[in-house]
């Protein structure tokens, strides 16, 4: 029994440390800056087992992603899900492969019509685990911001930050 455990440990079998798992959603901060969000949806995503573990640890990057609708199915492009060193050595899926999204056909059809007619895009905003421990992706129908819109949102963010700090200082009793 001890020999088999040592043999397995020598091969590289390890257990996932739950203390290092990401509890907060993984956000695409650039999408909130670059796009005006019109509508959001929650979608499931088709993943391999090792990819779920990598997402749980936080080895995922949502930057520069987009969703394409191909033959009535939605696919997510541009998301990088890294490999875990403890995952299967013989099966390592491509880190940037397109991943199928699980949505109702009515939702897909509605958004594909809007994307085609109004020149809109679909991007992923955040990736998280729901109450049933399933990986979910919040996707949004977005419209690209112009440069002056981005400047305006930056000014608004600075003003909000200053107002919060002044309110905090006022509540503390000092200026």
Automatic annotation (TrEMBL):
One of its GO terms (molecular function) is RNA binding. GO terms for cellular component: cytosol. This is SsrA-binding protein. One of its GO terms (biological process) is trans-translation-dependent protein tagging. The lineage of its organism: Bacteria, Pseudomonadati, Campylobacterota, Epsilonproteobacteria, Campylobacterales. The gene is smpB. Keywords: Cytoplasm, RNA-binding. Belongs to the SmpB family. It comes from Helicobacter suis HS5. It is found in: Cytoplasm. Its main location: cytoplasm. InterPro entries: SmpB, SsrA-bd_prot, SsrA-bd_prot_CS. Pfam families: SmpB. It comes from the Bacteria. Coiled coil: none annotated. Required for rescue of stalled ribosomes mediated by trans-translation. Binds to transfer-messenger RNA (tmRNA), required for stable association of tmRNA with ribosomes. tmRNA and SmpB together mimic tRNA shape, replacing the anticodon stem-loop with SmpB. tmRNA is encoded by the ssrA gene; the 2 termini fold to resemble tRNA(Ala) and it encodes a 'tag peptide', a short internal open reading frame. During trans-translation Ala-aminoacylated tmRNA acts like a tRNA, entering the A-site of stalled ribosomes, displacing the stalled mRNA.
